Amino acid sequence: MKILRILTLLLLSFSVIARMSADELLQVADKFRSPYQYAQLDIRIDDFKNGTIKKSRNYKVYHQDGQSLVDVLDGADKGNRVLLSNKGMYVAPKRSSRAVRITPIQRLLGQASYGDLAGLKFSKNYTPSIIEEKDDVTVLELIAKKSSATYHKIILSITNDNQRPVDAKAYLVSGKLYKQMQYDVEGELLKTITYKGKNKNKKTIMTFISVKDKKIPKRLLTSRGMRNAIR
Fold first, then answer.
1. Would you say the pTM of this structure is higher than 0.85?
2. Which CA distances in Å does 60 have to 4, 69, 202, 228?
3. Spatial CA neighbour of 128 closest among 89, 148, 158
4. Is 27 helix (H, G, I), strand (E, B) or coil?
5. pLDDT tens across 165-184, in order?
6. Which CATH homologous superfamily contains domain 2-221?
7. Taking the chain, what is the end-to-end CA distance rounded to the nearest angstrom?
8. Which residues of 217-229 are buried (b: 16+ CB within 10 A; e: fewer)?
């Protein structure tokens, strides 16, 4: 009876997967990062070396319609703002009215890049396809829709039962493996993402402390208006 039950559950999982396209699977997986169209997230990033935290930073991220505005809450860059808009990525230093253009792959802290923090939804910037189906996971290949995406290609594994993200590998245009990501989900929300590069003694953990529904004015999602007050 136990074996029959397991087989039945597997068949049900595969039937659900079979009815969903790669785009639909990725959109469901994205909801574990944030279930809201307009969201405010409190995020902490801890950088580790040999199991010891070397540096920690806290951020408040406002995400909507595939765009993000980030407040840096502590550290040397406290007061800075980061914008990921449809026109590119910018940093506005706390003591300057001018925004400086940057690339999403530029390192933010440890193994985490600016794009890792601000680019919360893969479905906005990547075209997915199913490349492998296993007993418990489906593997998606994500190809960047435009050169401004953080990575050229991502290989993402999601569970068959609820499309929860499990792990991912990020690749550069050259085809070189750049970093690996491990996802930890609690309930229906992503709790942490662990980033690892070549050095096995180093890792960076992004923790999602809280997420809530919040919309900000569109004028803040521009390089000229990104320093305006958030109410």
1. yes
2. 48, 8, 25, 15
3. 158
4. helix
5. 999 999 999 999 999 999 99
6. Lipoprotein localisation LolA/LolB/LppX (2.50.20.10)
7. 58
8. eeebbbbeebbee
